[in-house]
């Protein structure tokens, strides 16, 4: 990778990263602070009154432990959607917009290969997501220890977050490949982004009752099993490994496409 370009683009994406981090910090601390047996009974009543709504957002299991509570309210929707939005915004700034506006020509005119440039841009996306994962993990552990010392299964949380990063990598890889594959800004941004959004919607529908349960295997999101990862289940770990392999393969395909395609700039 080109260190100068990596540092420049990392700084350029600092603001949006901080905004997303602040939003996640708010949600994480609020959710952790809500862990209360008495409040849990109230939430159970809300679930019983609107079961389909809670299930659609992956919040169908109340759980008796702090980790189960966090998995239910954070990992079914919030910690999947916001990192996806962050990845989509970054890829638009790093790849889609420069190609569409012609500013990518300045990078291609430098004595750096296309593969090196593409690897650098992909590296920025992965690095920011990795830093976001570290931030979220530290925040979860810190807020849990501050509010409910000793109640959090830290090992289970770390296992879950390790698998969650594989899902982030997959979604970012889909968007990166799309950005490198299409010439027009619209398809470059929204083919990959649209596929991820469609996966979200299909998963939400599959969780509402038994009628559409068959759809749960129609998206890669089903490979992320937060409860299974927390428990160290072999099948859940296998699903996470598949997410990592697929994510790396998608980024590699994006780099290869970027290196060979005829950029209209």
TrEMBL record:
Transmembrane segments: 12-35, 73-96, 117-142, 162-182, 189-206, 236-259
Keywords: Membrane, Transmembrane, Transmembrane helix
Entry annotated with the keyword Cytoplasm: no
Name listed for the protein in its UniProt record: ABC transporter permease
């Amino acid at each position: 990778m080109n260190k100068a370009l990596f540092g420049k683009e990392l700084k350029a994406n600092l603001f949006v990263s901080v905004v997303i981090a602040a939003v996640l910090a708010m949600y994480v601390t609020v959710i952790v602070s809500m862990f209360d047996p008495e409040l849990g009974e109230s939430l159970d009543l809300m679930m019983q009154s609107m079961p389909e709504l809670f299930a659609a957002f992956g919040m169908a299991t109340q759980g008796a432990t702090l980790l189960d509570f966090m998995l239910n309210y954070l990992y079914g929707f919030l910690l999947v959607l916001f990192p996806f939005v962050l990845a989509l915004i970054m890829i638009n700034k790093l790849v889609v917009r420069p190609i569409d506006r012609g500013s990518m020509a300045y990078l291609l005119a430098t004595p750096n290969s296309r593969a090196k440039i593409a690897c650098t841009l992909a590296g920025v996306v992965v690095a920011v997501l990795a830093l976001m994962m570290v931030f979220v993990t530290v925040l979860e552990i810190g807020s849990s220890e501050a509010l409910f010392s000793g109640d959090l299964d830290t090992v289970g949380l770390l296992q879950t977050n390790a698998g969650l990063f594989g899902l982030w990598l997959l979604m970012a890889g889909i968007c990166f490949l799309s950005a490198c594959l299409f010439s027009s800004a619209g398809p470059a941004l929204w083919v990959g982004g649209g596929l991820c959004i469609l996966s979200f919607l299909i998963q939400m529908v599959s969780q509402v009752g038994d009628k559409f349960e068959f759809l749960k295997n129609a998206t890669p999101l089903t490979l992320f099993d937060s409860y299974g990862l927390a428990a160290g289940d072999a099948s859940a770990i296998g699903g996470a490994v598949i997410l990592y392999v697929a994510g790396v393969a998608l980024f590699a395909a994006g780099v290869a496409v970027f290196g060979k395609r005829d950029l209209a700039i």
